[in-house]
Amino acid sequence: MHAIDLTPRVWDRILAVRDGKACACCGRFTPAERAALDLYGPVARRDLGPVTVAQIGQSLDGRVATSSGDARDVSGPEGLAHLHRLRALVDGVVIGVRTALHDHPRLTVRLCSGHDPARIVIDPQGRLPDDALLLRPGGARRVIVTASDRPRAPGVEVLRLRAVEGRLDPVQILEGLREMGLGSLLIEGGGLTITGFLEAGLLDRLQVSIAPLIIGAGPQGLTTRNPVEKLADALRPDTRVYGLGSDIVFDCGLGTRAELARRPLHERPMIRHAH
For a tag on the chain, would you pick the N or C end, based on fewer CB atoms within 10 A? Predict the structure, then answer.
């Protein structure tokens, strides 16, 4: 397990990587600072194109909330700061409407320096009220992805898609958001929303943060709609483990682009285009 030390100069470097003004590979850093660059650098990079990363925080027994729905303190202070850092590195944060209705998130960056991402809610039936915290004006774009014809307040952008059996297709969601200029995205929750993007093969990275507490009951983190019957068929991503205060983060790379993102810029293979 790698312990990270996110010093101010390291975070400044990571933000510069996000802006295309620096790389995450050069310079003299301590091993713990280098671990921080290794954790956040692949999310910050843009030279390989937009990245789609999901993050979920859970307990030792795999719960994301209590039976009553209390999820506020699942992650420790460093785990929560980690989530805000991820928000600062992407163009938009995506959540499902159930998470929006229950947790009342703001989806802003408050525990680190950086910009606020666009706030995006997947709301097939138009259930989210107009006075929701994340729909309040505040500089960042506000986007509703829906199949409903419900009008929204001025300034709230609407991406209308066709629902199938009450669900919106993650592939169409991602394509639609990219067409709106929202490139790199953080799929923040809940578990069903993350699983939808995972099963569709749309995630470049999956980060699972585990906090040292046992809840005993309540909703589980990731539950796929098509579970494997044999362990030989289970998804086994390229994974590195990082210590964040009391929490542990499993950083899982999914697919070729995730592996390339770990390489220094000068080791990136040339991409040949057919004529």
Answer: C
